[in-house]
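Hi R.,

Here's the chain you asked about this morning:
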Amino acid sequence: MRLSRSSALLAGVSTLLALPVAFAAERVQVVTSFSILADMIENVGGEHVEVTALVGPDSDAHVYSPRPADARALAEADLVVFNGLQFEGWIERLIDASDFTGPLVVTTDGIESRLAAAENAEHDDHDDHDDHDDHDDHDDHDDHDDHDDGHDHGDIDPHAWQDLDMGRLYVANILEGLIEADPDNSAAYQTRAEAYQEEMAAVDSELRQLLGEIPAGTSVITGHDSFGHFARAYGLTFLSPQGLSTEAEPSAANMARLIDVIREENVQALFHENMTSPAMIDQLAEETGLTVAGTLYADALAGEGEASTYLGMMRHNARTLHDALAEPGHEKDDHGGDEHGHDDHGHDH
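And here is the predicted structure, written out as tokens:
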């Protein structure tokens, strides 16, 4: 009888000790390419997911070299999530090497139609105004911004998360992938995704208010051209020594041309990026006399602090730009809108 009781007790303890292991094993194993996507997935998946980011905070996904352990992580994953648009030039080779056969999420799926809709809305809005000059100038800056320096990122800027409206599309794609990998928890994923997208819309409104106080025509200089979607969404002009990828070093001619542009345009400050070398921006500061007004987060989250989450990163960037460039009482409706709060960016939530 004592033996029986002891056996039962040991069996009960063993069961209790095994519960956390069993629970952990039931979580959906998600492997993603970099830290920003990891935060999005954790917000949608909550306690039902365990997320591994191949490229962590403050690290550069452009120049990452996969390790054998990464292939093993993909082989054991239930779901793989990456940005696409050739942002991670190494990811598809890694997926092939891993023999991963589960569901794949490309978070930029549908981005072309979303961008076309945004562009059409913006053009419709512009048609209501007589003054197109400022916007034409903005297009010229985009053309100037070294998109043809030899790197291969395709025709679409892959940094689409820099527009919170596009970020909501990312979440929709992540939601679809999680439901495919774990249909039993689809209701929980749906609820969390809707709440997260509502939070994104609220932060988007905060950004518009802050950035609306920066004078029209203000140009921003950063390390590489990762803020094109941010510029389009929030009405700023970004210039950079590098193109869309950090892999290409800027030529002396490009640096000289940018210095000329800085002197010609309404450039008030320079900004470092968290995962690119500060040397280029420091050189521009030395040669132009401009100050470096802070650090912006483009392709990677911070290891800690406000910018260690996607929405915190977006808030941090907007506040950093606002604090350096805003003029009290100055509204950006000089673009061709008026001073009564009309939104001239064509964004529809």
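One quick note: The first helix runs from residue 2 to 26.

Cheers,
M.
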